[in-house]
Design brief:
43% helix; 371 residues; 16% strand; single chain; 2 domains; 13 strands; Rossmann fold; 15 helices
Length: 371
């Protein structure tokens, strides 16, 4: 398609988060000779992390206040976007994608809905998922597993479901600096191996299972570092106490940009049963850590069992315990798996590939509009 196309992104929020970081990576690296971007946020007034950073890119950012009047919000979105004459409107989050579809219909341009979760999350979204598929011209997901599941569930829309897997960047503190910083801040023993897990502490992440696994490894000296916060933290701390783990389990709370410290760890363990394409796994791999998690399709998109990580039967606490024990006892195995994991994820999920895929999706939709 000749000339420059105006692309409008409607974001439900611009907080610190994986989806929002991927948006910033796209906006800061897209080809401005092809695309002229504009952003609308539906979460103003909360000092969202990425708002200022997007404006610093020279991209117009409009703020639409929260309101129970959905039609009124839609009209405000349309009024902000109309002077820009958008060629494509992308609802970055699923819950705002219906706005993208309706605004695009009003402004006579192509629309794209965004979804970065699993099929389970799609089902639990109730009407947002199906409504987004119905109201927009196409849907963009970040996982092949999710895309394949949705195509089976909605066969008439299969050719309008696109995939652009997340990008991972090689931006880390050096191992010595990260380890020194963490040891000093949290009283960790730098001479022991460190197992880490990271994420929002909600029931779906199953940190309770990880604590049960850790309780079975008490014959080996190590530290277990749990990074994050959330509604389950108090219960997890109580469970740690009941399992007599307080001496070698550290709850760090939230650490801004915590992924940059991952090179200071030795092993990354993850027990979630439901993910889209988990950023935290990609970040741990890029830091050179061996991963231990369940043998599930969305993890298999990232991990080759026995080569770039150890995958065990879902829910098998004994198997996860054995996998962690194996890595704890074998530093050379940790190093070899971590080295392969890092090379693999950086080769397959680098920024250039992400930008190429995003560009291809946008241009495909823009070209289809002019056929």
């Amino acid at each position: 398609m000749p000339g420059q196309s105006c692309i409008a992104v409607i974001a439900g929020q611009l907080v610190v988060g994986g989806a929002e970081r991927q948006l910033y990576l796209w906006l800061s690296n897209l080809d401005r000779s092809r695309f002229s971007p504009v952003v609308v946020t539906l979460h103003p007034g909360h000092e969202d992390y990425w708002e200022q950073k997007i404006e610093e890119l020279g991209i117009p950012l409009y703020r639409v206040q929260e309101s129970p009047n959905s039609f009124g919000r839609l009209m405000k979105i349309i009024n902000f976007l109309k002077p820009h004459h958008p060629n494509l409107i992308h609802g970055w989050h699923l819950f705002v994608s219906p706005y993208a579809g309706m605004a695009a219909s009003w402004l006579k341009c192509v629309s794209l809905s965004g979804f970065r979760g699993s099929t389970k999350v799609f089902r639990e979204s109730r009407f947002f998922g199906p409504l987004s598929l119905r109201l927009t011209d196409a849907m963009l997901v970040n996982s092949n597993t999710t895309a394949n599941d949705l195509k089976k569930r909605f066969p008439t829309r299969a050719n309008r479901i696109f995939v652009a897997q997340n990008a991972v960047l090689d931006e880390y503190e050096g191992r010595f600096m990260a380890r020194e910083q963490l040891a000093k801040r949290f009283g960790l023993d730098p001479d022991l191996p460190w197992i880490c897990s990271m994420g929002r502490m909600d029931p779906d992440k199953r940190f309770d299972l990880l604590l049960e696994v850790i309780s079975r490894l008490q014959d080996i000296p190590f530290e277990f570092i749990l990074v994050g916060d959330g509604p389950e933290r108090q219960g997890l701390e109580a469970l740690s106490t009941s399992l007599e783990l307080t001496k070698n389990v550290i709850f760090t709370g939230e650490i801004p940009n915590a992924a940059r410290l991952l090179k200071g760890m030795d092993i990354f363990a993850f027990a979630s049963f439901d993910e889209g394409l988990p950023n935290v796994i990609m970040e741990a791999q890029a830091a050179g850590l061996p991963i231990v998690t369940w043998k599930l399709p969305f993890f298999e998109e990232l991990i080759t069992n026995g080569q770039t990580g150890l995958l065990v039967k879902p829910g098998d606490v004994d198997a996860m315990t054995d996998a962690l024990r194996k890595l704890l006892k074998d530093p050379l195995l940790r190093q070899s798996i971590g080295t392969l994991a890092r090379a693999s994820v950086l080769a397959s999920f680098g920024l250039d590939k992400y930008i190429q895929k995003m560009t291809a999706v946008y241009e495909s939709l823009l070209n289809s509009r002019h056929r």
